Amino acid sequence: MVEESDTGETSKDRILNKTLELLADNTQGLRYSELLNQLSSAYPSIPPNKIQGIIVRCVRTDPRVSASNGIYQLQSTSQTPPVQGSTTQPVVQTTNALQDAADYINSNECIIYAQFADWLMGASSICIAATPLVTTNTQPSNQNPDVIGVWLPKMDDIFTRPMEFISVEIKKDVQWKKLVSGLGQAAAYTLFSHKVYFVIPGTSSEFPPSNEINIYIKPSNLAKLNTICQNLGIGLITFTARLQGDEFNPDYLLFDFKINTNPRLNEPNYEALNRFIRIMTEDDFRALKDQIDENLYNRSSFNQIRHVIEYDEE
Q1: CB burial of residue 125 (10 Å; 0-12, 13-18, 19+)
Q2: Which of 188, 236, 247, 256 would give a disulfide with 229, using CB separation of 3.0 to 4.6 Å?
């Protein structure tokens, strides 16, 4: 049932209108976490997961909104060319700020999860719904993906393929032993996933940007992992991290992702997949379900997900 306010606006209308208002007031843009926090504060009666789903749908479908590198802006603002003769200088981060950022990432790997889920749905278009999986605690930790996603066909697709369930293992570590351990976890997800991605730090370029954070793996290790992932049919994605601003603030950490190896489409064990879906908490399940726009994606495929678990809708 679609909730309406006293003015007759639906939740989607209120979130979209407020998003446009916030972006107009913040011409430099807002990070996803900032936008979500401000919308949640403005509408405490709307569940955060529902707000999350509406944000994703309005960004993907509304031509007035742009999202690039985790920053949400109005199109007119994001496309405004720099003023000629401007004396504005690029921000240069101090070594301490970059080291603080590296230390924070090393102790808070989960900060990568939300931005990667956004990237799966946005820039890469790998999924139409994705969410960090942080509340499923009924399985051993090595069986819990860090991010899960779903691909569904669009309603107007003539030729298409079946629904796909996607699992992601993310590692911020640069040590070979820990990377191999993470790859083993990713391999385990092939049991119940159509596609699996392994996300790790990238290598340093010859002249890295001044705001890039020093979290890199050795090129030789990346080459070896690339070969192993190709042999296993696991997608390999690398990330680089950068800091906006001259002082460390976790809200201004940005991650850029690059596909190194595409995954192979697997035929999962459907008993294991259904078992995994059934142990998901209601919040995790709804975070996926709320992102699936019934107007854009095949209803029968959507119903396959919706009826796997019979949650109380009351």
Answers
A1: exposed
A2: 236
Fold held by 1-88: Arc Repressor Mutant, subunit A (1.10.10)
Domain ranges of the chain: 1-88, 95-274
Residue type for 9, please? E
Which amino acid, one-letter code, is at 269? N
| Mean pLDDT across the chain | 78
pLDDT for the residue numbered 155: 66
pLDDT band at 5 (very low <50, low <70, confident <90, very high): low
* Residue-level pLDDT at 90: 43
pLDDT at residue 243 tops 50: yes
The dihedral formed by the CA atoms of 195, 198, 204 and 210, expressed in degrees to the nearest 10:
90
CA distances from 305 to 1, 210, 291, 292 (A): 18, 45, 12, 10
Task: Assess contact for 62 and 16: CB atoms under 8 A.
Answer: yes
The CA R_g of the chain, rounded to the nearest whole Å, is: 20
What is the spatial distance between Cα 167 and Cα 156, in angstroms, rounded to a whole number?
Answer: 26
| For residues 61-84, average pLDDT | 62
* Rounded-to-integer distance, Cα 169 and Cα 187, Å: 9
**Residues 6 or more apart whose Cβ sits within 8 Å of residue 274:** 308
**Count of positions (residues) in the chain:** 314
Strand partners of residue 30: 72
